Amino acid sequence: MTKLVSRSLHAVTAARVAELFQAMSDPSRVRILFSLLQGEVNVGAIAAQIGVSESAVSHHLRGLRQLRIVSARKDGRTVFYALNDDHVRSLLTLGLEHIEHE
Predict the structure, then answer these.
(1) pTM of the entire predicted model
(2) In the chain, where are the structural domains located?
(3) Could you report the per-residue pLDDT of 34-77, keeping only the tens digit for each?
(4) CATH number 1.10.10.10 given to 2-101
């Protein structure tokens, strides 16, 4: 951790980190991401789980895919979404632990 603190952050890198956190700044997107902690899920299942329309979930997932926060896999006509990597899983878990610690 000390190594990260001691170096300066390039402007482009800082912008990308800010973009990542901005993507997670919407409560619906956070709920979508938490539903993906269980593994691959399709839009309909996410919408049912969090009580948001499928079109709204699709819209959010499109943006999350563009930022490489989630990945998509097509099986026939159904698209399954998953967290892109363990870093995203860690961010979500740490964020929840921080809030529950307060």
Answers:
(1) 0.86
(2) 2-101
(3) 999 999 999 999 999 999 999 999 999 999 999 999 999 999 99
(4) yes
